[in-house]
């Protein structure tokens, strides 16, 4: 296990990423006891303080539990926060995710986002609608094959969830946006998109702007469904998966 000491990332964040990735890729299994802080710190030549802070980060993400004198153990998968943006990044950056995991992300999106679009149609503010329009314009200008376009896509989906005026749904905004980002990166990993998704986003925006809740719901269902078809087209492992 190697610790990256990049200038842009504090040491404890790098340690958390290394341990978190090891957990997510199966190097540590649920129930496994991690090395104690003295052994770990000496092995990696890092401070015990940095290791303890890394463990706190992982505990907040549901990956581990730490108890005095009992040590730090890997939690059951049911405790892992799979919508945490860091966890999603670690999964997608370390080899292709399992077909089941990709399918589950799209199942979640298909459950949440159409309903959110319907609520946003009824509850959005003028400022939120303007933010969605700007995001759509940037998506059209840059495309989703580049970072600027993907950032605009993230803003588009996050803004819809915020526009629901539902705080519980709002807590999902960063996780849903991260899922959108990483599945988009995955299907465009050869540098090009299978299809231009901007027209489907425009239909969602038009329905929200018109206050058409049912139209927004249907448009978002179509958008998410086509996005899953796109990812199936570039990953043969997903041919038999459906949402």
From TrEMBL:
Instruction: Show where the HTH gntR-type domain sits.
Output: 9-77
So which residues are the signal peptide here? none
**Which sequence ranges form a coiled-coil region, renumbered to this chain?**
none
For this UniProt record, the keywords arranged alphabetically read as follows:
DNA-binding, Transcription, Transcription regulation
User: Which InterPro entries does the protein's record reference?
Assistant: GntR_C, TF_FadR/GntR_C, Tscrpt_reg_HTH_GntR, WH-like_DNA-bd_sf, WH_DNA-bd_sf
User: Per its UniProt record, what Gene3D superfamilies does this chain match?
Assistant: GntR ligand-binding domain-like, Winged helix-like DNA-binding domain superfamily/Winged helix DNA-binding domain
PROSITE patterns xref list: HTH_GNTR
Listed GO molecular functions? Answer: DNA binding; DNA-binding transcription factor activity
Q: What is this protein's record name?
A: FadR family transcriptional regulator
The organism encoding this protein is Aureimonas flava
